[in-house]
Amino acid sequence: MFLCAATTKVNAQCGPPAASNCQAVPASNMFISGNTNLDFIFDSFSKYSSGITISGATQLRLTVLPNNASCKWKLRVYIDNNPSAPTPVNEWETLTNYGGTGNIPQIDLMEVRIYNGCNTPINSGIYQNFTPLNGSYIDIINDIVLNPAGSCVTNVNGAGSYLTNYKEYSFTIDYRLQPGLLYKAGAYQLTLRFCLVEDV
């Protein structure tokens, strides 16, 4: 029996955003809760074939305070495979290998599903894969139009808070891996980085 352990680390960092229409951190902020290190352990053939899903593993809660009426933001999740390891740009970072046959998992094996009470994410409730390239991202909220809080529509991106509009400014993230029997047994790692930035 082969063992494949895949670890996903979840962070909420992407550098300080420009703040002109929206207030900067710490007035505006993203709170992340849940387990920030997720382990997918494939130790049976049924897990390899049917996959592993970790539901509700990450919760994001946003507070975006305005400097003026043009405050608008976007939310993305980036994938990082630690290419300085060195790791090829399309593969998971290899921590250790247990076997000699099979392939190294590709970045697009990671699936995420993001949703909330108002279905504000662009692809709310739908599993999505990353492009198999380090640094690729999935847009969660991104619209050229300002959609104010309280409208409960896709891409709500105006000033607001989970404290007053919980269903729009809170997000739940599920993770899924369905590897099949193609991959070399080992331990592999990826980091997901959630980024909230002002959209100007």
Present the secondary structure layout.
Elements: E1 4-11, E2 29-34, E3 37-42, H1 45-50, E4 52-64, E5 73-80, E6 93-97, E7 111-115, E8 128-129, E9 137-141, E10 160-161, H2 166-169, E11 170-177, E12 186-198
Parallel strand pairs: 1-12
Antiparallel strand pairs: 1-3, 2-4, 4-10, 4-11, 5-9, 5-12, 6-12, 7-8, 7-11
For this entry, give a set of tags:
40% strand; elongated; 2 helices; 200 residues; 12 strands; 6-stranded mixed beta sheet; 6-stranded antiparallel beta sheet; mainly beta
What does this structure look like?
The chain is mostly beta strands. Strands 1, 3, 5, 6, 9 and 12 form a 6-stranded mixed beta sheet that branches. The longest helix has 6 residues. The model has no long low-confidence stretch (mean pLDDT 89).
Briefly summarize what is shown.
The protein is mostly beta strands and 200 residues long.
